[in-house]
Structure formats: C-alpha cells, structure tokens
Amino acid sequence: MSLVQIETKALTGRKYWRSLNELSGTPAFREWMVNEFPGGAELLDGASRRNVLKLMAASFGLAGLAACRRPEGKIVPLSRGVEDLIPGKSYYYNTVFTQGGSAVGLTVEAHDGRPTKIEGNRNHPQSLGASNGYAQASVLNIYDPDRSAEVLKGGQVSSWAEWDQFASQKFTAGSLGRGAGLRIVSESVVSPSLSEVRKSLLAKYPEAKWVEYEPFSNENAIAGTRLVFGQPLQAHYHYDKADVVLSLDADFLGIDSGSPLSTKKFSKKRRSAKPEDEINRLYVVESQFSVTGAMADHRIRSKASDIDSFASALARELGILSELNVLGSADKVQKILMALVRDLKKNAGKSVVIAGPRQSARVHALALMINQALGNIGTTVTFTQPLASPEAKAFADLVGELNAGSVDTLVVLGSNPVFTAPVSLKFSDALKRAKTVVHLGAEKDETAVLSSWHLPLASYLESWGDARSVDGTVSIQQPLILPLNNGRSALELTAQIAGYKDQKGYEIVRNYWTSQWPAAEQEARFRKALHDGVLAGTAFAEVKVSADPKRVALPAATAKSTQVEVVFVPSWSVYDGRYTNNAWLQEAPDPMTKLVWDNAALISKATADKLKVVDGQILKITVGGQSLEIAAMVQPGQADDSITIAAGFGRKQIGRVGQGTGFNAFEIRVSGDAIQFASDVSNTGKTYQLVTTQEFHSMTEPKLMDAIEPKTRPIVREATVEEYRHHPDFAPHMVHAPDDSIYGWFDYSEGNQWGMTIDLNSCIGCNACIIACQSENNVPVIGKEEVSYGRSMHWIRLDRYYTGDAEDPQAVIQPLSCQQCEAAPCESVCPVAATTHTPEGLNDMTYNRCVGTRYCANNCPYKVRRFNFLNYHKEMVDIEKMVSNPNVSVRMRGVMEKCTYCVQRIQEAKIKAKVEGRRGELLKDGDITTACQQVCAADAIVFGNINDPESRVSQEKKQPRNYALLAEVNTRPRTTYLAKLRNPNPELVEHHG
Amino acid sequence: MPIFSKKHDLIARALAAFVAVGALSGIAAYTYFSHPKVIDVGYQPKQPVPYSHKLHAGDLGMDCRYCHNTVEKAAFAAIPPTETCMNCHAQVKPESPYLQPVRDSYATGKPVEWLKIHQLPDYVFFNHSAHVTAGVSCVSCHGRVDQMIEVKQVEPLSMGWCLECHRNPAANIRPAELVTNLAWQPDRDPAEIGREIIAQKKIAPPVNCSGCHR
After folding, report:
1. Rounded to an integer, what distance in angstroms lies between the CA atom of residue A220 and that of residue A227?
2. B193: which of A308, A449, A888, B128 lies 20 to 30 Å off by Cα?
3. Is residue A925 helix, strand or coil?
4. ipTM confidence score
5. Strand intervals (E) in A68-208
6. Are A923 and A913 within 8 A, CB to CB?
C-alpha cells in the first residue's frame, strides 16, 4: 500500500507551477527537480577534485599541529566604565529611516556599540512595528568596505581640514554674493531641521535655489489632487475600512508603498478568522505582475499607457465623465469593468480607488473623482498637507541654468543625479559647466567622479537628524555609532554652507526642537522623543476637501498607442541604484521574477514570440534615439507590448558587490516619465545569463509527474470565500495524512512547545522576512555564480506559484523555512547526530557537530536545508563582520544550516525568565518573536507555544483552513499554513459544469 | 625465480603492523593530548598586571561581584573597567610599581589587555546569569579563585564536563545568596540541599543541543 495518497477530486485541484519550464516539463526543469544541489564538487574554485583532496590532506596535518597550541584570547575592558552598559547585552534605540521621501520609524538593536539588526518602531504610525527589506538591509550599508571614506578634491585624496578651509573662503568670505550662482540639489527634504537650516541658507543667499530631485517621486499624485481640489495634498488610503479596493497600476503593497502601513491596513481587512468572515476584494489593473497583482481577486493585464482609458471608462460608467467609453477592446475587460462598477457602487463609502505613481496626473485626478463620487473621501480616503515634493520641472530648469553657465557652485546632497537624471537633460555635461561641484555622497559614484569635491556622507545610523513621515509625524534620527568613515550628514554640510548658528548635527536638531518648547520641559520632552521614537502631536491635521466635478479641468486623455511601451520601476533590490552595492538586497530574489543580482526586460510570451526572443537573449530597446541592450525575460502576467525594466542596475562607478550587475534602465529613460514608448525593439541574438531561483527547491514529486495521469502535490491550497464556507476544512482534506509511527510518538504535551503558522492569505511576498532572517541569523551571501548552481543560502524562501492561464495567471506566494517536523526525516539520517530534536519540539542544528554529509538535505521533503559549499564568511573583511549577530554561530564551509525558529531569541527569553525567577513557568505569548514574524507587515507569520490554548498560534491553528504541508509523508511539521482565500466578484465567477 | 620471496611477505606484514600500531597510537595520543583536560586545565598565563585574587577576594574578603558586577544580569561576567581598580587604588598603594599599567590605562584611556583563561569555543553560548541565579557557585567552574595568587583553569570546561552537571546538577546547586562564598561548607550533604532547591525553583538545565549551541 502506498503511503502517499493524493485525492484527485480535491476542491481546488488545479495545477500550480513556478516557471514556464515547469509548466511544459522541460528536461532542464526535471534536472533541477531531481538534484537539489546540481553540479558537484568539481566546481570548487576550478581546482580539480584530486588537488582539493591533496590540499585537504595537507591542511589536516597542519591542523593537527596547530591544535596543540592554545590560541591566546584577550579581554579588553574599557578604561572608564559607561553607565548602564553591560558587555554582551543588546541595546535598542529608536531612530528613523528615510528613502524616496518616505520616513519609517525604526528600533535598532546594537551589540557593544555596533548596530546589527533593524526592527520597525511600534510607536511609529507608518511602521507599527513592521519594516521593509530596504530598512532591514540598510544596516549592511554602513559596514560596506567600498563606502566612500575620503574627502576627494578633483579626484585626489584630500581631507576635511582642507575642505573646511575651502568652505570658509567660499561660503563666508562673500565670494558668492547673494548666491545667484549657488544651486543645491538634494533628495526630498522631509527633515524639519534641515528645512530650518535651508531657510537660513536661503536667507543668507536669497538668490540661491534649492532643488529637490527624486527619480521616482509622487509628483503625479500631488498634481492629481491639485487638478481636483485646487491644492496640493497628500492622500491617505484607509484599506482597513475598505471592502473593495481598485488599484490602477499602484503596487501599494509592494514597491510603491514607501512604508509598511498600507500592507498593515490592507491585511487587517484581508484576514479571515473563521469561514463566515467577510474579507475585502481587490481589483488590480497593471502591466507588470506585481505583488499587489498577486494578491488580486481580479487582475486585468493592461499596458500601463492604456490604464488611462480604463480609468476614463470607469469614470464614464460612474457618471463622472461624459466622454464615450473608449475601452471597448476586449469583451473580457468590459465585462469585468461593468461588474466592478456595480461592486464599487454597492460598496460606496467603503471602497478605495488608488492610482499608481507611474500614472499621469489625469489618472490620479480620475481616481480621486471616482472616490468622491463613491463617497469615499473623508472615510476611506483622507488628505493632509503634502510634504515638500520634488518637481521634475525644477530639476530641468536647473540643467538649463547650468547650460547657460549661470551656476558657479553646485552642491549635490546625498543623491546621484548623474546616474538617475533623465538622459535627454544630459546632466553630466551640464554639470561640467559649473565652476565648483560639491558632492556629498555615501559612495564614490557617477556624480562623485565628476565633482570638484566629493565628501563622504554619514549614514542615518551614524548621524543626528529628524524626519517627518507622510502623515506628518516627526521622529528624531538618533545615531547608534560614530561615523565609521568620518562622514558628515547633509544637515551638517548645509549648516556649514549657511553659516547656521549650530554646526553639529546634535545641536542643530536638539536646539531646533527644544527652542519651540517651554524651557522647563525641554530636557524631558526631548528625552521622551528619543525614547518613543516619535514626537507626540506632530501628525498633520486632516484637510477636509470636496470638489465640484464639473469644474475640474482634466487634461486630455492620452491616445492609445500601438507602440511598445517601456515602464520604468524602482527595483525591489537596489531601489534607484542606492543599494546596488548591498549584497543582501542583491541576493534576495525579486518577489515575482525571482531574479537575483540582475534586472531584465520583462516581456509577455506573446511579445517574446513576436520579437523571436527567449529568456536570456539580449534585446536592443530604443527610446527617443537612446538605446539599451538588456536581457529579456518572459514573465507570465506581463501585458503584451509592454516592457518593464527595474532601474538602478548597471552602475559603472560602484563598489565590488554591485560591479557588473544588471543593465542601466536610466540609459533609455529619456524624460522623467515612468512610461515611455520604444521606437524600436529588436533581438540582438546575444545572450546573457540570468539567474532566477524560481525553479529551485521544487517539492514536486517526480514519480507523480511521470504517472499516466500526472498529478501535482497540493502544496499551496486555496479556495474562494464561497467555497470555504461550504467546505471549511477543504485544505487539510486535500491529502490523507497517515499519522502512524512504528516507534510511537514522543510526548510533547508538557512545557513550551514551539509552533508557527503562516497565513497564505495575508502574505504579500515582500521579501522583508528573507532579509530580516539573513540579518538575524548571519546568513551568508554567495553571489550570482554560486546561486546559479542552486546554492542559495536563505533560510526562508518565498516560493511563487502561478496557476491558470500561462499568459495571464494568478499567483500565490508561499514562505517556506524549516518546518520543524516532529518526525523529522533529516534527524534519522544524520550519522553524527548533528541534527536532533529538543523536548520543546525544535529541530536543532548543531553546526559544530556537522561533518557535511548532506544526507539530511537529501532526506528533507521541504528542501529547506542549506549547505555551505565554500567559506563564504571567511572572505569577509573585518568591517563587514561587524554586522554579524554575536548570538548566532557563523557557519564555515562544509556545514549544513537551516532555520531554527530563531532559537537564540527563544533561549534569550528563557534565560530572562530564569533570571527574573520565572523558572518552570510557561513563557508568555509574545515574549518571543522570530525575526521573520517581527518584520512582517502583513502579520502573516505567527509564532508561539502550541501547548498554550490561548496563544495566538494556537488560535490560528484552530482555523479550519490550517493545513500541514506534505502531511501525506507523515512528518508532522510544527509550521502549518493557513490556506489562501480569494474573494472573486460573484458576477465574475465562472461555473464549471 | 619469483621477484618476491617469502621474506618479503614477512616484511610487508611487519610494515603493515607497524603502520597500523603507529596510526592507532597516533590517534590515541592525539585524542589524549588534545583533550581539554590536558590542554586547558592548569592554563595560567602571565597577566599584564600581577593582580592577586587571593589578596582581594580571599584575604580582604571582597565579593566577586564588586568587580564582576554583570554576572547576575548578563552572559558575561564582565572584567571591570580600569576605573573600578582606581576606585580604591587612587588611595590604596597609589605609588606601587605593580600598579603602573593600571594608572597608565586610567590616564591614557587605553584598556588593560587581560589574558582570557576560561575560554569557550565561539559556538558555545554560555550564560553566567542563568547559572548564578540558579545557585551554581563560581567555585563549581572556576575553583578556589580566592586562594589563587594568579588565576589558573582548574576544570576542563569540556562538553562532557558541562553535561555531567546539566544531567545531575544537585551537587552544584546552593542558595543563590551563597554563590560567591567560595569556602561554603554546609553541615549536611550539599547534594541534598541542591535537590531541595531544584525542586523548589524547578531547575531543569537543558541537555539538548540548542541549550548551548545556536
């Protein structure tokens, strides 16, 4: 009798696949499936196996000799003690992280003075305790050995003293007069104290100009509010109050979110605690398959440039526009549109329509007018005053002034416009017309090499500052370490130029805020602000608005184009190029394409066929006379005649990590628009190796694939809300779990018993958990080549499954780490007992005991064990090692590693309980959060004691949609999944016979 | 005539036996000489300051926690900053030549570089606070430091040695307020006292791998 019984007539017995290769079952995919670690030891640095063995024999001999001498260790205490500082204990400080004009409050963990781990600040309204991948990885940036560490004058090494001398002549001796020749370019200024210093600078130089520039800004969104309400406003969307959400090209759960808040709010309404619960419904219209699209109940694949027509048609059907419905194209879209209109009307006041930053001001205005017509304004959509927003025109004007030769001194603060500016502006040529160019930057980047002065920038973890988040809340940016590379902050440099009364970052920030408070409260209020990480009462007041739709003068709709469009998006890994040298982000696979270390031109299958191009072939894309050669990748769900390119890759002036990664999208971003049209796209016939992890670690059973009636294992399980109500236990019933043992089961009924649930219905696949785990557990980075051999080391991976039509599928994302099986197949095959079970149900991995047979990985049905093929950590230089978590062993070559439910955090909590005299008591629910759980904005991961019936994890496991992955192989995993739910519009559900 | 005679057989056998014996004794020697009991016990390096624990902790009766003040709160029993030494030595023996490195450190801000005696491998996560609050005395692992002029290692601190106590801790458990009383001699069987405390405090030392290896 076979132990594995798959019930074929499962409720959602549909086929899931992770790549087009898997869908068509190509030989290449089969090889990946069968060999978890394909290609063997002959890949060892090109040395032949024989040579390696010889070397190994020699080093064993040496090791034997060396072991006789005891290594001398030193204990180096401080000369003067620091109050409250206990060596080896971690300390937490609140600070704030800013990127692209969005500020998110953080709580940063420091070990003996080194910031090592980033968490979201629970008090911060944009974080609520969660954070994102960029914030998580930003700690690695400060230990980057390639970070700029020297003042450069004309490319030659100089010093701060020399700069100070220069600055005192330039900025105090009056050589700049009223500042007519002074121009400053910065990123979005969201720091109140920087605004204050800027004010004093502009008072000193009244004719100077300060230009804010961001390659990816929310300018169109703000322009939209100006069109509709006559004033610039910042819209806030309350997904937690919306039953229906329509996204017009807005990846509001993903790269367009800026903060974890939208995910927090959205998932609140998405969560289902029992089958009767109503969940929200999400419609997404987009060109690229985004993570928001993966969450969608209805996703409409559309060229980004056609979304204007869709929005117009929707506005017409809702009686806002009188123009004709220009949509008319495919019947399917029209059908969805009409169902959507009825759904929105039914949920008037409880819906959200949001347009994405890539869409024009017109689409934003339409979305706002639709919201107003539906009565959403003031309930699910509210407004506050906007933070200062960069305008593309101001930057173009600056280039005009540079070209006219009227700029004497250009100061670039913390950005890299030479790389990111629209090519048509020819910024790098214009820059050379300024007499003096001063660049304050973290890297010796493209702008630095063209500048007369390059000054190293101190990171936000190294310098004082403050930042206002989009809702207005102010946080103090509190440093955790002195500048490692002797850098200065933008705030300090501006103060120097302005001759501001305070020159040190701390004094500027402290005095700016305390001078607004009564003297007696100053100290206490400032300390409280530092402690809480937010300044109470600084949030903006809501601006009540309403518009008369008849008076809104909408710009003309853009005509549909038959040309191939190119859509520029910020990259999940490198954003606009600022993280190109960040190895954690580079190695985290893109949530949808699963590409690592590269970007690609994403195209649909139909477009690929038309261009006669396959994955990895290089396309030549010409936009406005500029062309770019870039590898193509066929992406299911991509709109036809639409190419999406993630920006930020292909940097030339970059450190060792970012060298040779990807293709520079900015080379063909002719104007500042995110959507442009290609005059020509052709296949060059050249090829490039793209590495994607989408086929790695497949849990497909080869035997089942080869059966006469091929079946796939039900790995991800989903149902519609309707189906769930009729069959609440559909998920666990999809397979037969044998649940018998020839040994008898171990008794786990006593004490703490750790378990986890992952809610597939909440997870958006944002990658934050991957990087949080990497940071917490010292997971090594291995590089593109090693990843191409299937050796990626992430302890938690996000498997992205497609289902349905190959061109227009739905997607489900499943996070997977060690399942902590009670009957762990890995344990029984370990010849040295390096992996064993604890009485609390953890599958321990003892690195110092492991001899690297890899039997455990071969026997793991979930493929969650990771093997150190090379000494990835040994090659790190000292400064890079500073990012390591001292509470977790650093693994060496030849050692297997895997998720341990953050056992170091479990032990820390247990020891804390012991020291506090709570021995023998169960730990309280919430005493321990795993790194992946803590970072998760969707609250999809719940960890705790399954022996405590009141714990959150026990509650989650009681849900009828709770299922154990591969229960049919009888592993009894402690991690279980809550099946995904979709909430399609009943009008659009196709009933199969 | 064959190339190899019977004599060669004998030589080959003798050679094989010799190699086998040599290899076995090599392994035996390696196993013995690399054991912490041999390598580590008795390790007594020369410290930069001739600090006498016998004088301070023994004769003068200072509590261990005056200097190692984090022992009940943290994983590490911190070695004190130079400032702690100078709390007394600003007045006591302010001219002593032995204390020159301490005064230098205090004046320059450069730390005194003490040599680490009780050194566990990096993959072992030992926590002082968990042990001390359970009632494991300093003496159980460090010996009679109050009688040592120069500190040396007296216990092997090997995994087997740790596990002996983790499996059967009674003999090493005493009332928590007595942990720094290295000379403590109860008037009845200490293991009996230990068992009472274990029952009362519900002490259950971990014996699984992740108790110490993470």
Report:
1. 10
2. B128
3. coil
4. 0.89
5. 73-75, 90-99, 102-111, 114-120, 152-153, 156-157, 182-186
6. yes
Rounded to whole angstroms, the Cα distance separating A561 from A816 reads 42
Tokens 């018998």 -> residue: A740
Residue A849 CA to residue B123 CA, distance in Å, equals 10
Phi, psi of B7 (to 5 degrees): -60, -40
Instruction: Enumerate the β-bridge partners of residue A468.
Output: A474
Q: Containing H/E element for A79?
A: none
Distance CA B129, CA B77 (A): 8
Q: What angle do CA A769, A458, A149 make, to 5 degrees?
A: 105
Give the span between the Cα atoms of A602 and A581, in whole angstroms: 23
Q: How far is CA A537 from CA A525, A541, A698, in A?
A: 12, 10, 51
Given a contact cutoff of 8 angstroms between Cβ atoms, the answer to whether A769 and A18 are in contact is no
- CA distances from residue A55 to A233, A726, A875, B201 in whole angstroms, order as listed: 67, 65, 19, 53
Nearest residue to A234 (alpha-carbon basis) of A391, A392, A387, A393: A387
pLDDT band at A37; cut points 50, 70, 90: low
Q: Measure the CA angle with vertex A382, ends A377 and A387; round to 5°.
A: 140
A530 touches chain B (CB under 8 A): no
- CB atoms near residue A467 (< 10 Å): 26
What CA–CA distance (Å, rounded) separates A296 from A270?
11
CA distance A356 to A374: 19
Contact of A900 with chain B, judged by CB distance below 8 Å, is answered with: yes
Give the separation between CA A880 and CA A846, rounded to whole angstroms: 25
Strand partners, A801: A812
Query: Which of A73, A77, A904 has the CB atom closest to B111's CB atom?
Result: A77
What SS3 state is found at A704? helix
Task: Give dist(CA A835, CA A847) in Å, integer.
Answer: 9
Distance CA A352, CA A643 (A): 28
Inform me whether the pLDDT recorded for A862 exceeds 50. Answer: yes
Residue A205's SS3 state is coil
Kindly state whether B83 is in contact with chain A, defined as any CB-CB distance less than 8 angstroms: yes
* Token couple for B14: 């003798």
Q: Which amino acid is at A917?
A: G
Q: Is A381 left (phi over 0), alpha (psi -120 to 50) or beta?
A: beta
User: CB of A592 within 8 A of CB of A778?
Assistant: no
Instruction: Find residue A691's DSSP bridge partners.
Output: A596
Q: Sort A85 into a burial class: Cβ within 10 Å, 0-12 / 13-18 / 19+.
A: middle
pLDDT of residue A944: 95
Q: How many CB atoms lie within 10 A of CB A642?
A: 24
The CA distance from A915 to the nearest CA of chain B, in Å, is 6
Which of B30, B201, B214 lies at the smallest CB-CB distance from A889?
Answer: B214
Helix (H) or strand (E) holding B208: none
Give the separation between CA A480 and CA A115, rounded to whole angstroms.
6
Cite the DSSP H helix spans in A318-360: 331-346
What does the pLDDT look like over A638-695, one tens digit per residue? 999 999 999 999 999 998 899 889 999 999 999 889 999 999 999 999 999 999 998 8
pLDDT in tens, A320-337: 887 665 555 556 788 899
What pLDDT score does B142 carry?
94
Name the amino acid, one letter, at B38.
V
What does the alpha-carbon distance between residue B150 and residue B54 come to, in Å, rounded to a whole number? Answer: 8
Rg value, chain A, Cα: 29
Ramachandran sector of residue A526 (left: φ over 0; alpha: ψ -120 to 50; beta: rest): alpha
B88 vs chain A: nearest CA distance in angstroms? 14
Strand locations in B50-133, DSSP E?
A: 114-116
Determine the Cα–Cα distance for residues A358 and A102; give it in Å rounded to an integer. 17
- B143 to chain A, any CB pair closer than 8 A? The answer is no
Q: Is A48 exposed, middle or buried (0-12, 13-18, 19+ CB in 10 A)?
A: exposed
